[in-house]
Amino acid sequence: MPESEGKPPVEGDGRVPFMQRLLDNPFLLLFLGILVPTVFYLLWGIMEIVQIPVAP
Amino acid sequence: MAEAFRTCPTTGLKVHLPAENLIKANAVAAVVFLAIGGFFGLLVALTRWPAVHLLPADWFYLALTAHGLDVLLVWIIFFEMAVLYFASAVLLNCRLATPRVAWAGFVLMLAGAIIVNVAVLQGQSTVMFTSYVPMKAAPHFYLGMLLFAVGALLGCFVFFGTLVVAREERTYRGSIPLVTFGALTAAIIAVFTIASGAIILIPTFLWSLGIIQHIDTMVYKTVWWAMGHSSQQINVAAHVAVWYAIAAMVLGAKPISEKVSRLAFLFYILFLQLASAHHMLVEPGVSSEWKIFNTSYAMYLAVLGSMIHGMTVPGSIEAAQRRRGLTNGIFEWLRKAPWGNPAFSGMFMSLVMFGFIGGISGVVMGTEQINLIMHNTLYVPGHFHGTVVAGTTLAFMAITYLVIPLIFRRELVMPRVAKWQPYVFGLGVAGISLFMMGAGTLGVARRHWDITFAGAMLPYDYPGAAFLMMGLNGLSAVLATIGGIMYVVVVVGSVFFGRRVEGPVELGPPAPRGVAGGSDLPAAEVVGQYGSAGTLKIPGTVALVGVFFVCFVLYYFVNWKYLSEIWPLR
Ligand code: HEM
Ligand SMILES: [Cu+2]
After folding, report:
1. Is residue B5 domain-resident?
2. Total domain count, chain B
3. Could you tell me if residue B516 is inside a domain?
4. What gap in Å lies between CA B370 and CA B556, rounded to an integer?
5. B12 within domain boundaries
6. Which site in B57, B176, B315, B382 is 20 to 30 Å from B321, CA atoms measured?
7. Domain that includes residue B284, residue range
8. Candidates B67, B130, B392, B446: which one to mutate for ligand 1, based on the most atoms within 8 Å of Cβ?
């Protein structure tokens, strides 16, 4: 039964896999976690709202 | 420096005393506001019970405003601050970064919460917790919200700072444990949440002071829900972390695969917040592309995250139980789980009800087309009492039963009351959720004082079943309130009068030596480790997940069918 005790997996050549480097970097995650909703929800949504023509 | 720490005899974790004091303060404040907010909830439910119809209209809306604010924001976020400090300083064996800033955050939150409550009780701010413009509250209502938010933001900064401290001082090896990762997810979502809140509430505050003339209602609603919805996702991330923590501490359970669970949290970080758009599904002015992208395509990835957790949490419990020798049939591990331990029973009910009640109804309601059947009906509060009460609140209550012996170092008073508490509260909340959903399906509006429409210009008759649902909802509310009172009594009693705990405590059933977490660690120590159970022999969990999917699919299609009848295409 494989046990990964205390030390997460490291590839044979000693390089840490990409996903793990991402998941081990809290500030990169923070950046992404703010970027994605800001772009897709806030900016896109507000752009649509401000484009509604004003009633004459 | 050394005397700032103690070593926990149960978990072996090094506990930074300033962090411990902050956890205590935030947890106590949380419980106080749960009691206040729960009381308002009871008043609201009794008013909506047609046979009782307790409060006059103005008081009803005031109580509803106070209820939403005190439980949804104040109780939950105070408790989450405690979770953040626990998951960073305690689980990583390190000192909390800048306890003074954390205390400043606490004071701001407390001051903000008190100011908001005063504003609401003064009667000039009955705007519901959503405070949609052009409804205008008193300026100090917004001010209180802002102070509370700034305080919470400071707490998040302290959490991030503590991660840095732990890495620099090398207090853990490799990656952070899963519970900490879940807390990190919550903290990330919290930063976005609070920033959105500030973007919209600062101008609204100025508007209430007369400095700004106009706030666009659509922009308000869009940005407000970037806060209002995302804050629910802080809760989801936090209570999933709490599930893992309880499973680890009580049974020594390790996630089936730490990698997969972390990936599920990554889905939360990236996609969960987009679902804010489901609050705008009937709004004109935003396109269907925007609505559907945010609530479906992207959102289903976040739902996938939840389903992964929904599988790996019970799976990790099953794996741990099987290691302990409970291997008969597919369900011995579940039958012989510690059901008399309120931490475990509360956690497991939270998991099941969050999935079956809150989760399924949420996905159904978040579908643009079916949403039309129940938009703004009582179905909505029914749904979110399944997520935020049966899910988050019950999970937080459950972990309190571990926090009391471990952090407050007191024995539980009235252990029999504690043992029954999750069941009473859980049953009551299940009732509230299901009956409100039932009433909503019959068209009963949310936030509505009188479903008889007595004296209204345009009367409307709801079917008798709707009145029955509201009555049953009232009864369930009484039950949930009793469960809430049991919780508050046990917590307050234990914290102030419980016998002091010396030495290690028994958090779960004793395990054969060397078996606990699949290593030689005592069970509870697993919570601070990175590592997986490394087994896929979880037939019981697979069966449960199968049942879940069948319910999910059936309910989803029933609603499409229902929609086609309401709105026939000819
Ligand atoms: C004793 C426990 C509780 C009872 C009896 C209860 C009952 C109710 C009822 C009857 C409503 C009104 C629905 C309407 O008329 O639209 C309501 C609304 C609400 N409840 Fe609860 N609730 C309880 C606990 C909680 C908790 C613990 C939370 C959050 C963690 C919560 C969050 C909310 C929110 C956010 C609303 C919506 C307020 C609004 O529409 O402005 N409730 N609750
Ligand atoms: Cu939402």
Report:
1. no
2. 1
3. no
4. 9
5. no
6. B176
7. 20-503+536-564
8. B67
Say if ligand 1 is within 6 A of residue B393 CB. yes
**Rounded-to-integer distance, Cα B429 and Cα B390, Å:** 6
Facing B270 at nearest CB: one of A27, A36, A38: A36
For B224-248, letters b (16+ CB in 10 Å) and e give bbbbbbbbbbbbbbbbbbbbbbbbb
Write the residue with the smallest CA distance to atom 19 of ligand 1: B68
Probe target for ligand 1 pocket from B33, B43, B44, B60, with the most ligand atoms within 8 Å of CB: B44
Contact A4 B219 (CB under 8 A): no
Is the CB of residue B399 below 6 angstroms from any atom belonging to ligand 1?
Answer: no
The amino acid sitting at B365 is M
Instruction: Give the CATH number of the domain where residue B252 resides.
Output: 1.20.210.10
Tokens encoding B112? 């903000």
Strand, helix or coil for residue B14: strand
- Would residue B510 count as lying in a domain? no
pLDDT digit of tens for each residue in chain B (570 aa)? 446 899 998 888 999 999 999 999 999 999 999 999 999 999 999 999 999 999 999 999 999 999 999 999 999 999 999 999 999 999 999 999 999 999 999 999 999 999 999 999 999 999 999 999 999 999 999 999 999 999 999 999 999 999 999 999 999 888 999 999 999 999 999 999 999 999 999 999 999 999 999 999 999 999 999 999 999 999 999 999 999 999 999 998 989 999 999 999 999 999 999 999 999 999 988 999 999 999 887 778 888 999 999 999 999 999 999 988 898 999 999 999 999 999 999 999 999 999 999 999 998 998 888 998 899 999 999 999 999 999 999 999 999 999 999 999 999 999 999 999 999 999 999 999 999 999 999 999 999 999 988 888 888 899 999 999 999 999 999 999 999 999 999 999 999 999 999 888 888 887 665 554 444 455 667 787 777 877 778 999 999 999 999 999 999 999 999 888 887 666
User: For residue A38, what is the nearest residue in chain B, using CA coordinates?
Assistant: B192
* CB–CB contacts below 8 A, A to B: 113
